[in-house]
Structure formats: structure tokens, C-alpha cells
Design a protein that fits this description.
By secondary structure, this protein is an alpha/beta fold. 47% of the residues lie in helices and 12% in strands. It has a single domain, classed as Rossmann fold (3-Layer(aba) Sandwich), CATH 3.40.50. A five-stranded parallel beta sheet has the order 3-2-1-4-5, sandwiched between helices. Helix 4 packs across helix 5. The chain binds iron/sulfur cluster.
Length: 182
């Protein structure tokens, strides 16, 4: 029996390489789209659709937690803690993944956030290790080695590729230079 991994996926482009890698290593993979950080809702839907396209192409089951997309709730946990927002954001998504994995009888949980060169990789790794459970372990892999490959596969597939991390703060940081502030 192959070991079963619940892979949290943050978006389509970041999911391709980890999904292919894990499958090539003999894991049975189920994907989980749980990203209440994404702002606004239209952006969330674009990324969810790209995740659908990728998982369909890879013949991987996708669980979408759309019912848990709640920007008010997300912001309440972040406001006044903006300095720590990435830690809180990772924690929320990885804890939920770990809990579903443990309850659902998965052997491991992991995240496609480990693919992105733009994420805080060592923070993700230590957070994952801290969530390790005897029921379902954190499967750490440095997927960044497939960065170029994964990005070019995403372009070939023609899926939506976002240009900011996800939350309202990251969108502001990405585009603030377009404001005409003298
Ligand atoms: S910058 Fe990215 S990881 Fe950090 S809080 Fe925003 S969406 Fe989450």
C-alpha cells in the first residue's frame, strides 16, 4: 500500500512540481485547497480554478474548503499582528491541513508553499516540524529545486499565474509604486 499524503496547495502553478514529484516517489496524493488569506474573492476563484485544472491534469483528487473562505475572520486574526502575518498565515493553513490529514487517516501532510522561492522556506519547515504528529507526519521536501521546471510547466498549461503572494497586504506592497504619491 502506498503512503497517502495530503498536500496543501496554495495555487495551481506552485502545485505542479510537488504533485509530480510526490507521485514519482510512489506516494498517493490528495490535494487540499485551503487559502483564506487570498484577497479579493475574485483572485481566490482564479487560483482555485487553476488548482482544479492542475489536479485534473495530474489525476489527483482535490478538496476545496470554499466554505471556510472568510475574509473577516482572516483579517481579525491578522490585524495588529501584521509583523507576524506570514507566520500566522502559514500556521492557519498548515494546522488545518494537519488536522484533516490526521482525521482522514493520511500518513503525511505537506504543502506546495515549499515550492516557492518567494516564501519563507525555513519558517515553513520549522512550523511543519512543530505540527508533526504521531498519527500523520509532516513530509518535508525542498521543492524549490523544481522552480524553473514547475513555472515553465505552468506556462505551457496556460493556467492563471498570480503576481502577488495573496493577502491584501502583499497586494498593496506589490502595486503601491503605481500610486501617485509625491
Ligand atoms: S504575504 Fe503571503 S504568506 Fe504572508 S501573510 Fe500575505 S499571503 Fe500569507
Amino acid at each position: 500500500m502506498p503512503a497517502h499524503v495530503l498536500l496543501h496547495i496554495c495555487c495551481g502553478p506552485c502545485a505542479i512540481y510537488p504533485l509530480r514529484k510526490l507521485k514519482s516517489q510512489g506516494y498517493e496524493v490528495t490535494a487540499l485547497f485551503f487559502n483564506p488569506n487570498i484577497h479579493p474573492l475574485k483572485e481566490y476563484l482564479l487560483r482555485a480554478e487553476a488548482a482544479e485544472t492542475v489536479t485534473e491534469a495530474e489525476q489527483v483528487r482535490l478538496i476545496r474548503l470554499d466554505k471556510e473562505y472568510n475574509p473577516t475572520d482572516y483579517l481579525r486574526t491578522t490585524v495588529y499582528r501584521e509583523e507576524q502575518r506570514c507566520l500566522l498565515c502559514y500556521q492557519r493553513r498548515m494546522e488545518r491541513t494537519r488536522n484533516i490529514a490526521c482525521k482522514g487517516g493520511f500518513d503525511y501532510f505537506s504543502t506546495s508553499l515549499l515550492f516557492s522561492k518567494h516564501q519563507k522556506h525555513s519558517l515553513l519547515e520549522s512550523l511543519g516540524q512543530s505540527l508533526n504528529s504521531s498519527k500523520c507526519g509532516f513530509l518535508y521536501q525542498d521543492f524549490r529545486s523544481g522552480w524553473r521546471q514547475g513555472r515553465s510547466q505552468a506556462r505551457e498549461m496556460g493556467i492563471y499565474m498570480q503576481n502577488y503572494c495573496g493577502c491584501i497586504y502583499s497586494e498593496f506592497e506589490r502595486f503601491q509604486k503605481e500610486l501617485k504619491i509625491s
